[in-house]
């Protein structure tokens, strides 16, 4: 399974309550693996299962090439 | 719609026939937007719709924050 990790800029987070709210909201999504909130920097890093990337890799492999 | 762009290392590409085969295989996938094959470097760059990233963004927004 392809796991994708991305950092998003998020506005409106001001305290630990916000951090908890973001973490709770994201962990409710099935494909989300981990959440890291940087309150000071206004950034949320999330890793999640990327189904489309899986399809891309399988298409390349099915065509006879190797994704390394 | 969140569009994701990624470069993969791919082994086994040796000629323009390979480039065409890779491009054809990837363009058959519904969510794939563009494909760029670097034959010499052994790299394939693909941009595609990332449904899971969309869910992540919507969850943050639904919790009352803004993804910028």
Concise account of the structure shown:
Chain A is of the alpha+beta class and 68 residues long.
Note the topology.
Two copies of one chain form a homodimer.
Chain A: E1 3-11, H1 16-27, E2 32-38, E3 43-49, H2 51-62, E4 66-67
Antiparallel strand pairs in A: 1-3, 2-3
Q: What is the 3D form of chain A?
A: elongated
H/E element sequence of chain A: EHEEHE
What is the typical, i.e. mean, pLDDT of chain A? 92
Which architecture of chain A does the CATH hierarchy give at level 2?
Answer: 2-Layer Sandwich
Oligomer: homodimer
Largest sheet of chain A: 3 strands, antiparallel
Report the CATH C-level class of chain A. Alpha Beta
* Terminal CA distance of chain A: 14 Å
C-alpha Rg of chain A, in Å?
16 Å
Explain what this protein looks like in three dimensions.
The structure is a homodimer of 68-residue chains. Chain A is of the alpha+beta class. The first copy, chain A, has one domain (4-67): Alpha-Beta Plaits, CATH 3.30.70.100. Chain A is 35% helix and 37% strand. The first copy, chain A, has 2 helices and 4 strands. Chain A has helices at residues 16-27, 51-62; strands at residues 3-11, 32-38, 43-49, 66-67. In chain A, strands 1-3-2 form a 3-stranded antiparallel sheet, covered by helices on one side. In chain A, strand 2 and strand 3 form a beta hairpin. The interface between A and B is large, with 38 and 38 residues.
